Amino acid sequence: MRLIGLAVILSLALAPLAALAQQPPGKVYNIGYVGLGSSFAGPNRTAFYRGLQEHGWVEGQNFVLTTRFAQFKSERLREMVAELVQRKVDVIVVSTAEGALAAKHGTSTIPIVAVSPADAVAIGLVASLARPGANVTGLSYLGTELIAKQMELLKEAVPNLSRVAALSNPANPTHAPRLRAAALAAQGLRVHLEPIEARTPSELDKAFATMMRARVGGVLVLSDPMFNDEARRLAQLASTSGLPAIYGFRMWVDAGGLMSYGPDFPNLFHRAAAYVDKILKGAKPGDLPVEQPTKFDLVINLKTAKALGLTIPQSILVRADEIIQ
């Protein structure tokens, strides 16, 4: 048994060395990252770096990361991509649908790994999930397909819900199909859907004021980079407005939101590292199937529920993957 254990330990220890052996000795690859926001930090970056390390990549030894950020100005994304193309990066990693489309427009030769654009086929990013084609691959997180479930959970949490707002960013190309999915779900649940838009952080207060005038009883917040960056503020606006809200990622619940249903976002970045690894070792992005998450977490913040005067039904609590007290 000790010999077997030693063999396993040695194999794990040598795995990164074996991976490095497939790379030209001394070559330092340049991984480009384009963000719609202002930084690449926190759990997402940690997960991405952990994934790279698992495949034998060490920053400063065999790769460097070159980042560009659009500061939430979508019109600057193509400029950011152009800068990375000029620097001749070996692969471009993008974390939004807008960024992925800008990267696809900006280069047909540099491989692109898209981390989390919803509905990659619907927005024209890839030809198909199985055979994305061209120079784009990555992970798509089923933004539209999850809308109906999110609406159902919100209705179940607030049984007397009759009017619900859907907060969207019209600059996000994935929000149009998600709004259509929300309208269909609302029709099936016999609730009225009130679409509300916000393009910039400065428009969020106005959006919630509009919700109050419309007398909505709950909010569906569509996942969006700008909304994500304003998670704590949005959660506070929902709370002070007395509106139960459901979100797409647990980061919202950590920030004080009521509940979320969706994939583990940092895990998408962890998986993206595997795509980068394969591409840097010679794989063609168009031959790598686009991956979709298969596990979705329901997270509930009972402290927020109490502040809203809301009692979450036991039928939801027993299905929750995590409950924040």
Attribute tags:
2 domains, 17% strand, alpha/beta, 325 residues, 12 strands, five-stranded parallel beta sheet, seven-stranded mixed beta sheet, 13 helices, Rossmann fold
3D architecture notes:
With 325 residues, this protein is an alpha/beta fold. The protein has two domains: 22-141 and 265-287, Response regulator (Rossmann fold, 3-Layer(aba) Sandwich), CATH 3.40.50.2300; 147-262 and 296-324, 3-Layer(aba) Sandwich (Rossmann fold). The chain contains 13 helices and twelve strands. The chain has helices at residues 2-21, 42-54, 77-86, 97-106, 147-157, 175-189, 204-213, 225-229, 231-240, 250-254, 265-280, 302-307, 314-317; strands at residues 29-35, 63-69, 91-94, 112-114, 136-138, 163-168, 192-197, 218-221, 245-247, 259-262, 297-301, 322-324. The strands form two sheets. The chain has a seven-stranded mixed beta sheet, sandwiched between helices. A five-stranded parallel beta sheet has the order 2-1-3-4-5, with helices on both faces. Helix 10 links the parallel strand 9 and strand 10 (259-262). The longest helix has 20 residues, at 2-21. The radius of gyration is 21 Å and the shape is elongated. Residues 1-21 have low confidence and may be disordered.
